[in-house]
Amino acid sequence: MSEIKPVGGRFFELQREVKIPDPIELAEGIVIKPPTKNQLQAFSVAETAEERESALLGADYEKIVEFYGDKPYQLWVDFQKKIQDHFFGPGADEVPGK
Q: In which domain of life is the source organism classified (predicted)?
């Protein structure tokens, strides 16, 4: 499917108005980009924690898991919180009924 490239209209305006968070460079060669609509759709229907993490973290998921594999668990938990805060705003994970 070809990509539609808007040249004007409301979508073009939204792209200029909306603040999209910057990608996060975790380590050399590991970059976490802001999640797409498709990633969040996959996140919302995921049945396991691993599926949710993979959907949210995107293409570098395996590298990220390997990076944290031998580090203290508390670092992994804090990393996940920081990712949520960065991409969705502080406290977004605490919203009732999310």
A: Bacteria
